[in-house]
Amino acid sequence: MNELPNDCKNIKEYFLTRVFKGEEATKNDQNHRVAESILHYFSGFDVFSLPIPTYDKELMKDVKGNMDKMNPQFFTGVKQFEELLRSIMGPKRSCKEGEYVTGEGLAALTTLYVEAINDPHNVPNVQTAWETFVNIKCEGAKKKAITAYEKKAKEELSKLPCDDEEILRGNDSATHEMMATFEQETHGISIDHTKPYLEELTKLRFQKLGEWKNENDKKTRESCEKLVKRLRKKHLDPVLQRVSGPEGTNVSFKDIDDGCAVLELEYKSQAVGSKDVRAKVLHEFHQQFQIERERYKDVLKTLKDYNETLLLIRLQNTKAEKEKEDLRKQNDYLKQEMKIQEDKIKELDRKRAIELQEKLEEFQAKESILNTKIHDLEKAGMKDKITGLERERDDAKEDNERWKRELASVKSKLADLTEQLRLLNRPWWQRW
Q1: Based on CB atoms within 10 Å of each CB, which residue in 46, 73, 174, 240 is the most buried?
Q2: What average pLDDT does range 29-44 have in this prediction?
Q3: How far, rounded to the nearest angstrom, does the alpha carbon of residue 337 sit from its chain's CA centroid?
Q4: Exposed / middle / buried, residue 292 (Cβ in 10 Å: 0-12, 13-18, 19+)
């Protein structure tokens, strides 16, 4: 056939009204049953024509080598066909809603299924094989995510001791790396499967944060105790030695207070690490020094400017500073723990929203396909097959509306949570 009939606008319509319908076809005719099956069971079909590449059989034996001698319109048509395939083809969905069978998944399924077939005590089951693959995939993704976290954390927190703010920032940065790795490795796997592993990673995030905090506190204490010991030896011990020596009467109480003042000043300028631990070590020094002063009390009282109140005030000030830093640190870490939990919820809701959007698009596509199939069956004169498809289309419409409502609910919840996180991260003076 060189030209289409006047009542057919394209080749597909010609197939529907001439080839599939056929004036001589009956319901018992095999060709009619084949046509009916194509229209009813497949999601859709299309028809296209390709120009003849060549009439020379010898050229067809080596198409690639003889492309320059063949009809160029044929290769243009092939490219158009390739573009058509890319536009309508996609990965197969698994037996679990919301999941796709990738090449990796198909290879794993094949291996697991062959193993089951070769095991006389095992009954092959596609769903069981898929669950096995997904669990192995998620477990591997979790291990890679943990490795990514630890690598990033070591880069960020390689120089301890440091401020608590750096610990929190480093943990955040490493967590971002961990979650990005996990999401990349579990792409195409539904939230129902990944949720338990996300819970495990959240627990790990708490655990690692605590480990970094404890390690930082330990190194801060070690560093600060060495610093206090060095500063005391430099500024205070020489004064105390004079008090207990033959020149004790020449020492004033102000000399002792000045030694403490210089020690405090240099300590605060040189101490590094967690602020609450730094404050604790300084307070402990003053507590210990108060005990030591009891040994020199009789001598100290003979000093003309003796004033124990000065050193007691220093003790009280360091206690107040310690308590303030304790509260600040507890507040910072409490906020971080709240953020970790909210991040987890937000991530779950975000993934749920993506899955719902994909489901919505899937059912919208299904509705469109069913409309096309109904139209094609009408064209082919197979109206008796339309009723079931119309019911299926109505069900798809209801599913569309249901997914729209659920998606809107999740998006609203996600927006509320985003706003809560924004308010939580404001500076303290903007919260009231």
Answers
A1: 174
A2: 64
A3: 17
A4: exposed
